[in-house]
């Protein structure tokens, strides 16, 4: 148990008894934080929602893609996370909740709470598993947003329907299909998938999973490189041990970890402020430079800064610096220059006017170091020792009855 809650007994009953006081102190040390407890008419615990002020403020300068992840708790219920990805490609927490299960009522409540801190917008994209109640709740609460299936979870489902072929290869092919950049490349690979993996292909076609929910080339909104909620930064991996603990020790562990992330990343940001782009994009462009500066480039339009680039295989592409686009479509989706776009920029800088355009201007602002800095500009504080708590009596006196959990072998999915 964390030192910050060492005076709170670790039993589930004591955790619920102190919950209101703990949440009050969490809000006091983290301005802008929203917490919400839902009790039934007998004061029995139903749901808990927490969105830390520093995280919500930081999301304003990030790509508007939210991954949703649920984790079964040992003592019953489900721990839910909503997370984004920061400009440098690391998991960025937005909100989390404890609910009774993965069902329509709990998902709807969670997204209603999330909407109170992150308004509905046509720019928003949600990535999640294929649970129908979750998908329905997103569409109902965030009607302007778009939902996409987690490509990793879809891959796992498709593998179950593969016959007479290596299932892992089928899964790999499905992931590749979801990540093509052009419709022609997708169609060619999908035709091959149909021939090589007929049973898996039949499942994808007949189960009602629309391509615009999982294939990049058909996805109607900007999701950048984000297509799965099951990343290396999966909250399930990070908090595996904590999900076995009583409620307050678990909450304290989560908040402490988020606080550590903020502190560590703030230090990394401070050492990167001499560059205009985050390290992930800066390193990507640096690695491409050795090839890009050797590619043949021909100017097509001096107004649009449109260029013809021939790659090492002899294939021709058109890239436009003003429009930030390329016929390979990598630039269009990732929002930073592809190999051909970089070759065009190098040509422009050498032969036209290198002082007129900086490379960072060809990237989405979400990859700018200054945005990264803003994402971690605030300090995320943990709840201090109980000795320093100053909680109003009316809050300390509120009683909460712990939920009656029925332990199951697996979590209920509706």
Q: Output the radius of gyration.
A: 24 Å
Query: What's the SSE pattern?
Result: HHEEHEEEHEHEHHHHHHHEEEEHHHH
Task: Report the biggest beta sheet as strand number plus sense, adding barrel if it closes.
Answer: 7 strands, mixed
Total beta-strand segments: 11
Number of helices: 16
**What proportion strand?**
15-25%
- For the termini, the CA-CA separation is 33 Å
The mean pLDDT is 91
Low-confidence stretches: 408-414
Helix coverage percent: 25-40%
Alpha-beta classification: alpha+beta
Spatial order of the strands forming the largest sheet: 1-2-5-4-3-6-7
The global form is globular
Note down, in words, how this protein is organized.
By secondary structure, the protein is α+β, with helices and mostly antiparallel strands. Helices cover 40% and strands 15% of the residues. The protein is built from 16 helices and eleven strands. It has a seven-stranded mixed beta sheet with strand order 1-2-5-4-3-6-7, with helices on both faces.
Features:
globular; four-stranded antiparallel β-sheet; alpha+beta; 11 strands
Topology:
Blueprint: H1 12-17, H2 19-29, E1 34-39, E2 45-51, H3 53-59, E3 65-72, E4 78-85, E5 91-99, H4 104-115, E6 125-128, H5 132-141, E7 146-149, H6 151-160, H7 167-178, H8 183-196, H9 198-206, H10 235-238, H11 247-270, H12 279-292, E8 297-301, E9 306-310, E10 316-320, E11 325-326, H13 330-334, H14 339-353, H15 369-375, H16 393-396
Parallel strand pairs: 3-6, 6-7
Antiparallel strand pairs: 1-2, 2-5, 3-4, 4-5, 8-9, 9-10, 10-11
Helix pairs in contact: 4-5, 6-7, 7-8, 8-9, 12-14
């Amino acid at each position: 148990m964390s030192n910050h809650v060492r005076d709170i007994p670790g039993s589930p009953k004591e955790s619920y008894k102190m919950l209101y006081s703990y949440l009050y102190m969490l809000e006091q040390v983290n301005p802008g934080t929203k917490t919400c407890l839902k009790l039934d008419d007998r004061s029995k615990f139903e749901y808990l929602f927490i969105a830390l002020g520093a995280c919500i403020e930081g999301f304003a300068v990030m790509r508007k893609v939210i991954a949703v992840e649920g984790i079964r708790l040992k003592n019953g219920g489900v721990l839910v996370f909503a997370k984004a990805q920061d400009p440098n490609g690391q998991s960025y927490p937005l909100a989390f909740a404890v609910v009774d299960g993965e069902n329509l009522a709990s998902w709807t409540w969670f997204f209603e709470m999330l909407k109170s801190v992150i308004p509905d917008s046509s720019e928003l994209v949600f990535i999640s598993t294929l649970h129908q109640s979750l998908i329905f709740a997103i569409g109902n609460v965030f009607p302007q947003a778009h939902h996409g299936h987690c490509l990793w979870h879809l891959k796992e489902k498709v593998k179950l329907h593969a016959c007479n072929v290596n299932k892992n290869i089928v899964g790999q092919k499905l992931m590749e299909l979801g990540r093509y950049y052009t419709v022609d490349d997708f169609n060619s690979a999908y035709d091959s998938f149909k021939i090589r993996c007929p049973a898996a292909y039949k499942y994808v076609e007949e189960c009602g999973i629309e391509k615009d929910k999982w294939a990049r080339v058909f996805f109607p909104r900007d999701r950048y490189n984000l297509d799965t909620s099951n990343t290396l930064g999966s909250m399930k991996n990070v908090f595996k041990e904590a999900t076995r603990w009583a409620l307050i020790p678990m909450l304290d562990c989560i908040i402490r970890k988020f606080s550590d992330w903020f502190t560590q990343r703030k230090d990394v940001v401070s050492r990167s402020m001499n560059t205009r782009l985050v390290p992930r994009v800066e390193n990507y462009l640096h690695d491409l430079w050795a090839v890009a500066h050797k590619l043949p480039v021909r100017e097509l339009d001096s107004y649009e800064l449109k260029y013809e680039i021939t790659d090492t295989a002899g294939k021709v592409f058109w890239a436009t610096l003003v429009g930030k686009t390329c016929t390979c479509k990598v630039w269009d989706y990732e929002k930073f220059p592809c190999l051909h776009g970089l070759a065009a920029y190098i040509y422009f800088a050498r032969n036209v006017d290198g002082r007129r355009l900086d490379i960072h201007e060809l990237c989405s602002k979400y990859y700018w170091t200054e945005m990264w800095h803003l994402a971690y500009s605030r300090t995320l504080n943990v709840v201090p020792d109980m000795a320093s708590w100053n909680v109003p009596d009316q809050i300390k006196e509120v009683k909460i009855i712990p939920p009656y959990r029925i332990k199951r072998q697996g979590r209920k999915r509706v």
